[in-house]
Amino acid sequence: MVYKGLFLTDQPCEWLITESDCVPYTVLLYAGISGMFYSQTGVLIERGIATFASNYTTTLSRRIGVTISTVVVLLSFLTYRTIMWDDPLDGYVLTCFVPSAHSAHRANWFLFICVCLTFFNLIASMAVMYYNKVLEYR
């Protein structure tokens, strides 16, 4: 905006950005955010399978890792579509990381679920770690 104001004086300076112009940025933003949480959950699932499966081999580890990675990538890019399901994207926002007015409620629920998922992953990870310590000392 400063560059536009100083050097492009013949063009009007618009402070707001259309929601449709922000789509590529918000897709990457929501895919990145959800990918972190999904991969955290995927690692916990893999750790749980490794802990409780009696026949956990290297081949099984690779298969589970590839499956979980594929699911994480797919879900990460589908998260934006789920949040912006029926949003017309016809408004304006100040920056591209602000959710649109029509989807703000779903975006807030998504972030709330991410916080709850983080606490669940923390508790489950501590439980798996405790179980492994008990088995180690047994």
TrEMBL record:
The gene is Cnig_chr_II.g4247. It comes from Caenorhabditis nigoni. Belongs to the nematode receptor-like protein sra family. Its main location: membrane. GO terms for molecular function: G protein-coupled receptor activity; olfactory receptor activity. The chain crosses the membrane at residues 64-83, 109-131. One of its GO terms (cellular component) is membrane. It is found in: Membrane. Keywords: Membrane, Transmembrane, Transmembrane helix. It is a multi-pass membrane protein. It comes from the Eukaryota. The lineage of its organism: Eukaryota, Metazoa, Ecdysozoa, Nematoda, Chromadorea. This is G-protein coupled receptors family 1 profile domain-containing protein.
